[in-house]
Amino acid sequence: MNMKRILAPIIILLLVLGWGNIIGGNAEKYKSYTEHMKNAKTLESKEIYIDAIDQYKKALEYTKNKLPVQEAMLDDYLKLKKYNDFEKQGNAILESYNYPKNVAKKMTDYYIDRKQTVNALKLVNAYLEKNAEDEDFLALQGKLRGSCLEVYFGSDDIKMYGNGFYVFVDDNKQGLLKSDGSDKIAAVYDKIYPYGKEPEYAPVCKDNDWYYIDKNGYKKLALDFNVESLGVFGNNLAPYCSEGKYSYIDANAKKASKNTYDFASSFAGKRAAVKNNGKWAIIKSDFSQVTDYIYDDVVLDECGFATAQNVYIAKLDGKYHIFGLDGKAKDGEGFDEAKAFVSDEPTAVKKDGKWGFANKKGEVELMTDYSDVKPFSNGFAAVYDGKKWGYINKNNTVVIDFEFNEAGNFNNSGVAVVRKPGIKFIQLVK
Hints:
Layout: H1 3-23, H2 27-45, H3 49-59, H4 67-79, H5 83-96, H6 101-113, H7 117-130, H8 135-145, E1 148-153, E2 157-162, E3 165-170, E4 173-177, E5 185-189, E6 191-192, E7 202-206, E8 209-213, E9 219-222, E10 229-230, E11 237-242, E12 245-250, E13 263-264, E14 271-276, E15 279-284, E16 297-298, E17 311-316, E18 319-324, E19 337-338, E20 347-351, E21 354-358, E22 364-367, E23 372-373, E24 381-384, E25 389-392, E26 398-404, E27 406-407, E28 415-419, E29 423-428
Helix pairs in contact: 2-3, 3-4, 4-5, 6-7, 7-8
């Protein structure tokens, strides 16, 4: 049999099937479809959008390829400011067609224009769950995550953050609160630090009397000897100062060591930094030394920890280096200045007159031209342009404009303390 005779009917059949896919297998349907589409476009050219939508609805009855028609309706709903219909139509398209990029972008822009940043970010996140490598939406996600909302006004001042709590100041007295304003410990203390770990007590001073309180604000642990200060608990040990010398107490408020120091940090990772005769050393929780007294300086975080992130930063031979808990340096040449890690993300370091960021391995990940920077946390770092503070992401892109007199690190909940000029809390959009 002639091959052409075999192929010809097949080709005709395929053409018929293809035509049928477009017009439902009926030339009359196709005619009706094209007529309604033409009418809709004509009405749109005259800005008669409400009637154009009716024509699109009729066109939908005559085609299997509904997405272009539904998207055209989506545009007209927006032009008519029929926002409820726009959102309903847009969400229906996203769910029915597995988040087509064009429609996802239209809806994201819509939410951004209406300052509905939370909804915009939710949509972007949902799109990226299905299209994880889309660079346009990844960039948009980064930008939106840099959007922030003012949570509430703070108090007279905010001193520090640790273990989920901020130290706040009212009328020259200090208290504790969470970043959402809950679990407030009244500002009745002359001095207070955030809760420690192992055990979760907060050191306080009231009327020259130092002791520890629990998370309900009740007095929980008192010493049977006089001290000039108490530090934050870690690894069931806390530093204290008595008669100008530092040592440690255990979780029962008993002296844990006979060793004394000119200064002693809190324990974390079973390590602490101590100072004697102008030099620093690292010790273990059994008070044996990891290193000799060789460091000119050890960098502490605002709660008095040197090793809270399982590394420490110390100055040796004129340079700051990042060390493991074993006392071995992780970097090479070191840095001129360095700030304490506040998370697993890179910290701020200064080298050759410029501020940048280095990870826990001592590797520089980013250098900047900013006159001051703070460590990364929650994906962002506060940076100072010489006039105001703002925030950048790890691509060195400004994500929160330079509008703050002061700017703190974002905590794990995406909250930071800023001054603008009064003290405020800002919350990253999630």
